[in-house]
Amino acid sequence: MITAEQKPMDEIRDMIAPYKKILTVGCASCVAECAAGGEKETGALASALRMACKMAGDEKIIHEKTLDRQCVKDFVIQLDEVIKDYDAILSLGCGAGVQAVAEMYNEIPVIPALNTEFLGETRDQGLWIENCLGCGDCMLYTFGGVCPLARCSKQLMNGPCGGSQDGRCEVDPDVPCAWQNIIDRLSSFKALDRLDTIYPPKDWSKKRGAGPRKIVREDQKR
Amino acid sequence: MKKELTRTLAIFYCQNVPESGEEVRQSLEKRYGKSIRLFPMPCSGRIDIVHLLRALEEFADSVYVITCPEGSCKYLEGNKRIKKRIERAKSIIESIGIEKERLNLITPVSGDDKVSLASYADEVMEGATKLTPSPVFKKAAHGAGKTKRK
Fold it and tell me: In A, which residues are within 8 Å of B136 by CB distance?
């Protein structure tokens, strides 16, 4: 899922300062899972902003609404009925959600309330870890289900580097050595021979280096 | 006898706090009138940051959460969770200029597991006499006028 964190309150207040009627829009998908932009967080942010405005004598109207998904037009369309009442949207969606809303409502500014962070896994309650870079050429089969690009601090395709100690990364001992994990996992299902090959560096020119990516599926189209 | 104060307190409490039934709630409301708003919860772990902020936004000068005693949560860790949520809520209100002391947690220690809701409420209400009004309801500096409580 996509992870995010709320921007500092001062930054949000600066961005909404010019507007009087603001709709705070949450997203009940990924950013709800990482407790950054779901219904509860949207309510809390709207409440905090209303209090801040009251104390400053700034008569803003701040309402809130949470969509099931901000990155899907079919859900964003729910804003059609209410959008005319506001002069700005404060979005608690990820970067994709903010842009999907902005794309649909050209005439109104859409302000991001979150910093989108990474593609990650909920490892534990309150702990999200980055484990996918979205490279577009998944090699998790080769590396036994552990991505060295996302999880090795040095992004080595042919590791280990030799610097890890007791299974911890030498760059950051809080991080488990991805290559230790790769070798342990491949060993456990007797597939260590997958590392006999020397893997060339990632060819980013066909992926991220080729500009914004898109997926087209004819069978899914209207 | 009614002891109405000039401040308003919100008290969220776990229904496992001793003697916290409906009759006790009604008698506390009778005693303190509009100065107290009581919110019985099946578990303090059900209380979220948004509930605490809403109370401060709409009517409360201060908010208290009274949990069941440590180690006796029926849902295992509800009273631990609310502790962390209150810390987070405190950082939010501080970031907008409200004193963090307006959010408070009372977790009875295991020896105090016979102390009733009324005793805690009386103690909290006594402290409220020294409480300054919330800046949310003060007259705004730029002429917006005094904000009404809901």
Answer: 51, 54-55
- Global pTM value: 0.92
Phi-psi region of B33 (alpha: psi -120 to 50; beta: other; left: phi over 0): left
Q: Considering the domain boundaries, does residue A217 fall inside one?
A: no
Q: Are residue A108 and residue A142 in the same domain, yes or no? A: no
Query: How far is the CA of B113 from the CAs of A92, B69, B106, B110, B119, in angstroms?
Result: 42, 6, 12, 6, 12
Domain-embedded: residue A221: no
Q: Domain range holding A86?
A: 2-118
Domains within chain B, CATH numbers bracketed: 9-130 (3.40.50)
- Between the alpha carbon of residue B116 and those of residues B12, B44, B66, the distances in Å are 14, 16, 11
**Are the beta carbons of A74 and B84 closer than 8 angstroms?**
no
What is the torsion angle, in degrees rounded to the nearest 10, for the CA atoms of residue A173, residue A179, residue A181 and residue A183?
-150
- Number of folded domains that form chain A: 2
**Contact assignment for B96 to A48 by CB distance below 8 Å:** yes
Task: Using the Cα atoms of residue A46, residue A51, residue A57 and residue A59 in order, give the sign of their dihedral.
Answer: positive
Tens of pLDDT, residue by residue, chain A (222 residues): 999 999 999 999 999 999 999 999 999 999 999 999 999 999 999 999 999 999 999 999 999 999 999 999 999 999 999 999 999 999 999 999 999 999 999 999 999 999 999 999 999 999 999 999 998 899 999 999 999 999 999 999 999 999 999 999 999 999 999 999 999 999 999 999 999 999 999 888 877 778 888 889 999 988
Q: Which residues on chain B are in Cβ contact (under 8 Å) with A55?
A: 96-98, 135-136, 138, 140
Nearest to A57 among B53, B92, B144 (CB): B144
Q: Which residues of A touch B (CB under 8 A)?
A: 8-10, 40-41, 43-44, 47-52, 54-59
